[in-house]
């Protein structure tokens, strides 16, 4: 047999050339060199091929991978294959490149030289993990693994693609819309307005950045869609969050395009004595178990994401160091009245908060007028470019003194 001739010490074969048949279902621990002779477009197939040489064996200290056909265009496969992480979260993949060996169990070591890192970073940035083909492939793989239609949290519990990658696709702003595509015969679709509401819950809260919104939704779900104003205040804990949540759930916080996307009418009605889902949502929750289950899935996903990423928030900002946030996220977490992402550029002072935005990697042809010397001299010192007597700066100093 060819495998015996390859693996025996006195064997007469140095290489076996195959097409597909060694991708899975074969175990040859003695393999110490893999030569790639054709492009690999699937991450799953790449991991399988890579894995042929990663088994331990006596007198085998390392494996050599030779790429003759340009897999460097897809070299983001490498950190995915080596880390075992299948979330396809770009930040997670980049973190593995930075941390390398420290994130691996046991005595395994991985080192990326700086040129390789930079090329892999570029490949990650260019890659679109939210293509329909890729999403369907990952979904089918998970479904076959667990033997049922996956819930949102199954993607995390079984180390599959991160649900946020699904929601990044313009046609799949909620899980029901995705299931319509991949489970055409076995999926019960939602109404237009139900999809708008589910999209609102999904895009705004499933990431788990802040739990007050999720606690409010959950409390309404458990109490026939209505709670007392007293209970609402208990959930919010302070008046700034009370004001913030009210503007978010009445849609006043959002820009016009988002308001239209989320159904154009307040999600929650606020009176002096109670807080309630609007009548259309109430009817859907009471009569449509599929819609209700989708909302529950978003709640579970948000709580899981919060537990995994956002428990160590800095109280003054509701943010976690080194996590990634958009300007819209900042407006919400800072309890601003409106989403001002379109008008916040270098900095903005509001509600005793003063976010500063820095373009760290500037284009070579950047205009001198905006080529600011904005960088951290050390972890505590950041050079200012404003006159210290400017009114905005003076207001900032006054606020800082009040905080102290």
UniProtKB/TrEMBL annotation:
One of its GO terms (cellular component) is cytosol. Residues 7-55 form the Helicase C-terminal domain. Residues 320-382 form the DUF3427 domain. SUPFAM superfamilies: P-loop containing nucleoside triphosphate hydrolases. Transmembrane segments: none annotated. InterPro entries: DUF3427, DUF8090, Helicase_C-like, Helicase_Restrict-Modif_Enz, P-loop_NTPase. Residues 135-305 form the DUF8090 domain. This is DUF3427 domain-containing protein. It comes from Globicatella sulfidifaciens.
